[in-house]
Amino acid sequence: MKKHDIGLIGLAVMGQNLVLNMSDHDFSVAVYNRTFAKTQEFIRDRAAGRDIVGAESLHELVTHLERPRRVMLMIKSGQPVDLTIEALLPLLDAGDVIIDGGNSFFQDTIRRHRYLAEKGIHYIGAGVSGGEIGARRGPSIMPGGAQPAWETVRPILQGIAAKVDGDVPCCDWMGTDGAGHYVKMVHNGIEYGFMQLIAESYAVMKHILQLSYPKMASVFKEWDQGKLNSYLVEITADILAYRDADGSPLVGNILDAAGQKGTGRWTSESALLLGIPLTLISEAVFARALSALKEERLQAAPFFDAPEAEEIKDKGSLQTDLGNALYLAEIISYAQGFMLFREAAAEYNWSLNYASIANIWRDGCIIRSALLKHIRDAFSHDPDLKNLLLAPFFQQVAMENIASLRRVVTAAVNAGVPVPALSSALAFFDGYRAGVLPANLIQAQRDFFGSHTYERIDKPRGEFFHTNWTGEGGDVTASTYTA
Question: Among the four residues 50, 123, 155, 322, which has the most C-beta atoms within 10 Å?
Fold first, then answer.
């Protein structure tokens, strides 16, 4: 029996397109789907004439594979992954590799990596971004986990990945245990932020600039030709130009209640646990949650009128400001994401390569943009860079565009147009650039009611003090604080 290079489980859209991509790059593939009829249909239809074989059982799938066996899972995250692993275990030998290409929670990946390592099986959590088109033509892939298995899977994963700068694959090793899925999680969080920022820009265009749908599509298309070049800006132009069957703009007929699968929420939860101010992405997650309250919003709307906004005398200037504001806000979203990476690397003992992460996001993935080349260059120049806003290029961009962000947020607030992500970007920037914040009052309050102590500006960091504010307290203090 001919042995195949890799097995893939799960023939939904992403799985099928990855298999065809592998076949395009001369890798032979054995496939399995829980519903055998779907496997048969795939082999008969899209996979016809290719070196792709269907299996009716997991046992048959494994018998088709070259050793060490490589089995990729493209199935729903959570319990289905655990159940599939348990079903595969009796069929695999030491040195074989399981690759989870779904959106698994990174802590689950850490757990599975340790569990399988005890049994001699290599486990790789590989984030895959790019949607069905990316899967078919070249995604961005973020593998991490069992380091000894990297060379075993590298030819296939890098072979099918998107390429930049000629032939540099948008796939590189992220690190041990859950690093790959963590990077993909943060990628998705940044994606939430970008989508919300673009949606808010659309709202400003529609309700304040009062642009027609064709004009909005034209503006986004123009933006995509310049510094705002990105996949999400590109498809937004196409979406705004698309017509429904009756000739009206299709997007205007879509219910304004956004769904989510949870990866953005995971990103915000991780930031809270690690103490990183991931404000923009978190606002994007909450904005989706608020949008889901459609019936409540309809009930509230008649009671609360929008403010009477001042007339915008120079709409052309505001439109220019809006592009500049979106540009700076996207940079802040990236900056917060990489802040989270740095803290996670320290917490989980990962050696994340930030320049490499930026580079593999440059093509194939949903958040690909022209900005990523500048981010890669910033971290290549200074791998220990604490924040993107401290790099010379981004310092200059911030100085040039912050006034535009202020004007756009002001105009939106005055008009009663909600822009939580743009507002959050501005608030984060002002907080980050501030040498002094009112947190001294918060710390005084904590010491007043809970004896939590404080540090002094006239003393070295690390020395803690307590004041008996009322004269009725004592000298006993609670634990110190983490700032």
Answer: 322
